[in-house]
Here is the input.
Amino acid sequence: MPSSRTEAFSDGVFAVAITLLVLNVDVPRSGGGPLQHALTTLWPSYATYAVSFITIGIMWVNHHAIFKCIRVVDRPLQFINLFLLMVITFSPFPTSLLGRYILASRDSGLAAGVYGFVMLLMSIGFGSLWAYTVYHPQLLAEGIDPVAARATLPRFTTGMIVYLACIGIAFISAKLSLAAFALIDGYYIFNQIDVSGSTDGLSLETP
Amino acid sequence: MPSSRTEAFSDGVFAVAITLLVLNVDVPRSGGGPLQHALTTLWPSYATYAVSFITIGIMWVNHHAIFKCIRVVDRPLQFINLFLLMVITFSPFPTSLLGRYILASRDSGLAAGVYGFVMLLMSIGFGSLWAYTVYHPQLLAEGIDPVAARATLPRFTTGMIVYLACIGIAFISAKLSLAAFALIDGYYIFNQIDVSGSTDGLSLETP
Amino acid sequence: MPSSRTEAFSDGVFAVAITLLVLNVDVPRSGGGPLQHALTTLWPSYATYAVSFITIGIMWVNHHAIFKCIRVVDRPLQFINLFLLMVITFSPFPTSLLGRYILASRDSGLAAGVYGFVMLLMSIGFGSLWAYTVYHPQLLAEGIDPVAARATLPRFTTGMIVYLACIGIAFISAKLSLAAFALIDGYYIFNQIDVSGSTDGLSLETP
Amino acid sequence: MPSSRTEAFSDGVFAVAITLLVLNVDVPRSGGGPLQHALTTLWPSYATYAVSFITIGIMWVNHHAIFKCIRVVDRPLQFINLFLLMVITFSPFPTSLLGRYILASRDSGLAAGVYGFVMLLMSIGFGSLWAYTVYHPQLLAEGIDPVAARATLPRFTTGMIVYLACIGIAFISAKLSLAAFALIDGYYIFNQIDVSGSTDGLSLETP
Here is the structure.
């Protein structure tokens, strides 16, 4: 099965999920308190919106990069991809939850922990997608060196450990853990690793 | 009419419908009871979200598989496809209904019955799409054997009978019927049938 | 400018608009009255959902048919298309409005009139798209006879008059006008006209 | 990295964002006051819906025009594009805010200022996308003259100054600033500039 229709469907799901995030930013209703105050107290909504948007955006860039290395899709790969998409479409839930609870005197840690847990699941989904692919070289596109590709797997494990650490931080300070997620995003925007053993220079960022 | 634009439109509808499901998972509001309790009592939302997501995901994989067997689309096929898409886009309604009523002392059976009825309609939509195609061989892609394709039709009937049975179970126990739908999903993830009489090995899962 | 990206964007808008309709079907909350009663009184939501879904579905089939006759898109055509898409994305509003007011003792006529007015605007959008195209033959695909294409324009005018009549009916009986819209849909599902003067048999349904 | 999948993803995001705008138009509930009055007082929702729809529509036409000039996408360009998409998907928030506050005795200026600020960010996103592209000629499609392309950059600056002026107007009169945004849309619908130094006549509208 060629990978093009799976890519098109995944692109659609990414595009909808990333756009639905804005529905979680509550619009103040006229007739309440002063708007300036309402907008200022909404900062957690903006911050979680931005962090989740950039995270899903990076995930899409990564998904794009992974599928450039894939020539054909088999049935297990399609269901691993579906698992990953399920976590990504679920992400508006923890985003909204963290936006509502990050300033709460109690439960902010739990909300940030749930957020981190969903990020960890995304990371596991990505790692599984890539691990399955590199161990089934018949799925790989031409010019991709399976040995070089496999050598990148430990980086995915590192990513998971970083997310696990963020879940720990969440229970100390929800705001700190949100800042940590933003930092991870910044890291992935400016860094990437090279998985191609060939000359055409494909590269892949670890999610 | 070549089938590509119909596929692209269907992919878009599947992608949006599967992503809208998350809007049915209510996010607890800060200031209510303890978050841990609120999250725990939300389990029906998560469970119905997961079952509906996986069901629509399998439907998409099936749709993909059916359209690989189709070369051109005629007017009746386009409207049968539109009927199927109408049922799929409607599925967030029964999903949300079941999530809200599965723990109710009364009416949980009716909610699960409605859920099962929509699943049955999906199954009928799929069966009709495939039945119409195999009885109009001029629509079939090259290499698809109409006789082998027709031989798969009884399996679609079996699928409908299973969904009918689930509707019966719904009125006994809503939770049991949700578990039954999850089991059917699991069956379709791991099993598929081969409809190609040719050598290129196309295969199709009954929905 | 080739028409393919305009088609892709339009397909996306159609797919999202048709899927958002379900958000207008209110899901009863557990703890209110008996579910069976709640579901029965929701019939206007289901009926308007189905009529709007089928109308947008037919519009998409028509849009598909019109763009098969278009080779390149110029700037005015792109903005006419954008106007049509604006009306289509707005359609969840009158759909929800009619679903809420069709049973109201007062104002049901106004709600049905608003619904009819938006349908009329869709019809005008479609007519303009087609009229602009047939009077700019350099935009037409090969094999499309501009004279035969122009001969279909009166049918679009007929369509607009029918919608105008439905708006009149709306103020007599909202339910009757919804039935009329369903009838028009049924007519367009089973009838189509042939606009090609050539031998490749393209055909177009008037919206 | 060829630009096609980035275009497809961007198209999806534009299509969803433009369609979600309708969710901000509140549907009156049966049982409140007379419908005619409710619909009349909703005019700010319709007006902001229309202005935002047309603005995003023009942005899409522009995005289309810019990407026709781009042959390949590099990593920084992908993240500039992602920033632009983040602003576009955020636009339902200021649209809804302005719709709710434009008639308020206090705070209408602030709401219109927020709206204008998001429009300014869109303009900056577009300017950055284009500026980055024209200063990296290796990304440009064949037949695009980098010198002619760079000569269009001052127009983007003009666009930003116009938006800045609109933010100033916002604090004088929110209604006037909405009219100004509508006027800017009208200007971009009927005017465009030519960036191609070649004979194939590509043209680009400044956003």
